Amino acid sequence: MSGAVVATADRHIVVAAVALVRDGCVLTVRKRGTERFMLVGGKIEPGESPLEAALRETYEEVGLRIETATLLGDFHSEAANEPGHTLHSTVFTIESDAVPVAAAEIAEVRWTPLRGHPDDLAPMLEHHVLLVLVEAFTNR
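-> structure tokens emitted (140 positions)
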């Protein structure tokens, strides 16, 4: 997930993200100064639900104003850009043909294939979320 994230004392990061899916691909982003692509998303602000955070981050990072999304699930993995940290992400999905534009700390946006993807993905996306997305979107 991109965006500023806050780690608790036990080095655990909690974020919310959106998997924007279209034509067998998911929108991924790469933050400035990093190499791994991840889902759009970031930290949950005080008083904000995971869904509200995910929708806000989608607007801030790629300029897409999304009104609602469907819960995909909660996922846990090692963090991509914070060595020694773990990550808990609540992920939502939407299908969209909107055109994202890199904003805020995002250096690059890319539509990444659900199958046969490059090897530059964040661990959460590559080892957990993509498996669920493939199952959810390939039989449509």
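The chain has two helices and six strands.
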